[in-house]
Amino acid sequence: MASSGAVTPASPKVVKIKAAQPGVAQFGCEHIQGFLTGPPERLEKTIMHYKNCLRVIFDHTPIVPQTSKSSKGQVLTSLTPNYLCLQCSTTTTEHDCLEHGNETSHRFYVESKSGSLFCQMCNDFVWDPTLEELRLRKDGTGSFSTKKRKQDELFTDPSKEDAGVILTNTVEAPCRASGIRGIYNMGATCYMNVILQSFVHNPLLRNFYLSDGHKSKNCDYDHCMSCAMDEMFQDFYAQESTSGYSASNILASFWLSKRKGYEELASNKEQDAHEFFQFLTEELHEINGDGKPSSQQENPSPKRLKTGNETACKCIVHQTFYGKLQSTITCQNCGDINSSVESFLDLSLGLDMLSKKKSLKVSNLSVQKCLDEEYKNPERCEYTCHACGTQEAKKQLSIKSLPNVLCIQLKRFKQFNGSASKIDTKVSFPLKLEMFPYTNRARVQDSKQQNFELARGCTYDLQSVVVHVGNLESGHYVSYSRVGNQWLKFNDHTVTLASKSQVLNEQAFLLFYVIQSLA
Amino acid sequence: MSANNSFPQKGLVVPAEDEKDDNMLGMTHAILDDVFYNIIHDIVLQTHREEKIARAASAAIIIQQRATLADPNNTHDSPSPVGESTKAGKVETEAAIYENGTIYLKGNPLATTSELRCSKCGLPRLLHPTDGNGARKPESGVEYCKKRPFIDKPHHDIYGQTFQPEGPGRGKKKKDMVNPLKPKEDTPAGSQDSPAASPPPGEGPQKPIPFPHAKCQHCGQFLPVRRMNGHMLKCIGGGGRNSSRDALKKIQNGNGNGSQNGYASGGSRHSTPAPSSQPNNKNRSSPNKRDPGEDFDSDSSPQKKQKKVIKKPLVKKLKAPGMMKSASQHSASGLSFESKPPPSDVEPEEDDDDYWDRKAALKNKKKNPIIKKVIKPVKKDEKNWVGKVKADAKPPPILPPDTIKVKLEVNGKPESREESESSQTLSSP
């Protein structure tokens, strides 16, 4: 629903009913219509009240909205939803709701778990466009302001642009084109297919390419990877075809790119999907960013951009995938703190190291536990303090800024004594990932005083999962992606439905999480 | 929320009647009960939200369509209902009111609207898949939106296409292949007949998703998509893991064998030349050309071998004399390329000659005047070689192999040493 948020750019203080849109009813029901179309003060007051209710629900511990006073003055805290009156500050249980309505003829209530609006006259939940938008924004980002995170400029408000220009220059995609297609295996290219599928279903990249982010007509690079990607996105979202897509152009661009450090990747052998991911992001960064492909970027290590002050790059890849890690080294003797910041493309979680530790049981390893280990718990490190010279130091990694799309790699392949092997440990991963505990803000704050608003902005939804099946010699990559609420399994050119439990039971290799405010 | 109303008393988990009344037990039940209730509540609410919003939108779309139809000013050719096109007029259905471009709902859309309309094309959505799990027969005579529910059917993808290859014996588990006598669900929009119910007689077994051909960006060739990556290796290559390794091997082997002649024939890691290619080897390679001082044993052995083998190819060649002639009579380049076995199978000394030939030929083509002198002896060589082939074709002047070798040696020797080395380095990237 957030995607349809074509709101008239209203200053936040002036309360307005959401502008009429073709194909969408103006109000959720007749009753709320009568209520909101009354005198303007009432509208303003109602919206303010609704915002207050949402703040109570989302910004504080759930105990507050879950506690109500019965008519006898008895305080009651319930696990099941309560109802907050929209017209006064009463909180009622589901039972007393009707009673309160009859007494005061207050007919609108806010449900205490999700913030949904309940209309007593309809005797049903009502999804009013104006109020629902507020709710979604609060739920997703943790604040009401329309100003989103840094991705805001990626979503140019269509109403701001000239609608006429858009109408005349674009073609409406056919209903059939859903972006769900397989990609043919071109001979051991499943490592490529899974990454491409995860890109296709990445909302940021999709919007970038579908909004003409890379102008292929003006592009003068030979065998430009971004042009090939553009073509792929167009094919996926504008063609009615249900058969697979042959990504031969991407493969050709891949072969022809000859990027340093990835030369060995292009071959007719099975490759590491993660390496291809790194290659692809870097390639797209150079094409779309400031750095032109001709002028090779100065960073010597392609895997990780070492310098933290490379935020200048506004390319789509950086806006999508890059976050920042902060590592703080604290001397145990003198307390000298040395911290450095580096940007990261993905978080790599080691599995073999963790399973060796006794503190963690191998049987139920989860992504959160791995993250705990790497980004929450300090570790001892080899470091000589330049102030006092002691070698006792603690290293603390934390995330300074979170990316819009978080890629987590579970290191399933390890090198041991020169021979590679695969770790088949099952690692459970959540559909919703809370990243707040791993940020450095969480560290600064007292853990008791939780910041719900911030935490809500750090919630990620699972978008794609890349799975490696089989062993090292004869393996195969399969990917799962979510389209709306439906999970789909992509196995080269075949696409089948998948259930959530099927997805969650897989041995994930790469996980793509999209920040909740976008999903 | 009608679901809630049917459970005024939350009672999903109820203790059995004969259980003892225990505080802890009661609490556990209550908490568990509430937790279950919440889970179900959330799921129902989520579904409710989706459905109600979709229904409300459908009601709005329907009334908008009515309004556009009713509007006299609106010429019928713009099917996309834009609210602004109808400024005046009020249209009312049982679900909504349309007034001056704004739509107001009337009643609960869940009750008043029964179908879902696509917001893009305004056509009703098909609500049930046409095949597989939960399939229902769509109503006939209705044109549905092309966006259809996904099909959940074993061996079929979400569009109802099967990806299972036809026929048994293609894989291990293909025996339990589903009956391929399934019609295509994927007929374009407007197909009303239910494919699931009765397979149309005209259609044969459904074919699996075909593999198309794709164009290679590099050379413009069309290839089956499955072979694309392999093709890229050959076509673009260079950066590949194997090609670099192969190139390295080639270089190392070429040089190595060139210097260590002792291993060349018997112990070389190369595959020993096949008998069919032997005559070429024989004709042009001269074991004597190797440094005579280095190893005599190895020198002698290949000679013997070749002597033995040589008779067979002679017979072979007789079978197709015309071919050989026509090929050989042309330019030197044609000859050298034609007779040249792939370099990896070639013995080093022969490499020398071969590269030399090739190089000379290339130079010849370029018509570089400076090299003409150099070319001359080579041409002789070639003529000699050609003559030899001819001679092979026509039985009479059978020369003992040794003499030919000597001749070759005489002709080929002068510059071959230096040139061969340089050419080797040139030709191997």
From TrEMBL, chain A:
The organism's taxonomic lineage, starting at the top: Eukaryota, Fungi, Dikarya, Ascomycota, Pezizomycotina
Protein name: Ubiquitin carboxyl-terminal hydrolase
Any Gene Ontology biological process: proteolysis
GO cellular component term, pick one: nucleus
Organism from which the protein derives: Hyaloscypha bicolor E
Family: Belongs to the peptidase C19 family.
UniProt entry keywords in alphabetical sequence: Hydrolase, Metal-binding, Protease, Thiol protease, Ubl conjugation pathway, Zinc, Zinc-finger
MF annotations from Gene Ontology: cysteine-type deubiquitinase activity; zinc ion binding
InterPro entries: Papain-like_cys_pep_sf, Peptidase_C19, Peptidase_C19_UCH, USP, USP_CS, Znf_RING/FYVE/PHD, Znf_UBP
Record's catalysed reaction(s): Thiol-dependent hydrolysis of ester, thioester, amide, peptide and isopeptide bonds formed by the C-terminal Gly of ubiquitin (a 76-residue protein attached to proteins as an intracellular targeting signal)
Catalytic activity, EC: 3.4.19.12
Pfam families referenced in this protein's UniProt entry, alphabetically: UCH, zf-UBP
Residue span, USP domain: 181-516
Entry-linked PANTHER family: UBIQUITIN CARBOXYL-TERMINAL HYDROLASE
Keyword Methyltransferase belongs to the record: no
Keyword Zinc: yes
EC supergroup of this enzyme: hydrolase
From TrEMBL, chain B:
Source domain of life: Eukaryota
Segments of this protein annotated with the region Disordered: 153-212, 237-369, 386-429
Composition bias type Acidic residues, residue spans: 346-355
UniProt feature, compositional bias: Pro residues: 197-211
Coiled-coil parts of chain: none
Signal peptide segment: none
Biased composition annotated in UniProt, kind: Low complexity: 258-268
Listed Basic residues bias regions: 304-319
Residue spans of biased composition, Basic and acidic residues class: 404-420
Polar residues bias: start-end ranges: 269-286, 326-336
Protein name, as recorded: Transcriptional activator
Lineage of the organism: Eukaryota, Fungi, Dikarya, Ascomycota, Pezizomycotina
